[in-house]
Amino acid sequence: MLDWPGLKDRANEDAEFRLHARLWNATLRIGVGQRNTRLDIQDGQVASAAPWSGGMASHLAIQADEGEWEQLLAATPRPFYQDLYPAAIHHGFTVVGDHANYCAYYPAVRRLIEIMREMRNV
Fold first, then answer.
1. Which of 45, 120, 58 is nearest to 95 (CA)?
2. Is the pTM higher than 0.90?
3. Over its length of 122 residues, how does the chain's per-residue pLDDT go in tens digits?
4. How far apart are CA 99 and CA 20, in angstroms?
5. How many CB atoms lie within 10 A of CB 88?
6. Exposed, middle or buried by CB within 10 Å (0-12, 13-18, 19+), for 84?
7. Of 63, 90, 77, which is closest to residue 121 (Cα–Cα)?
């Protein structure tokens, strides 16, 4: 669905992501249908992006089927797909994990999804 190593590089080069992610240390699991990708974030940098092999729990998990992700990452998203928060309320996204971490770093998560959208619609 996405070039995950490319996402790592793009996020680490993005000034807005780096600003919002500063001091963030977490494991983020992104689930697209049955496929899961693990993003390790260390001191505000995406340290690695690799397939999730299971095992260790993540600090935050974002899950939806592939069709939902396609809607969220569309060049011009439909209503309530412009951002993860309304997509989780009105559509098929689930966000689970450490909600204090999620709230504190939501701007970084939002920017990460915007970068994913940009990459998807080059």
1. 58
2. yes
3. 789 999 999 999 999 999 999 999 999 999 999 999 999 999 999 999 999 987 667 899 999 999 999 999 999 999 999 999 999 999 999 999 999 989 999 999 999 999 999 999 98
4. 16
5. 16
6. buried
7. 77
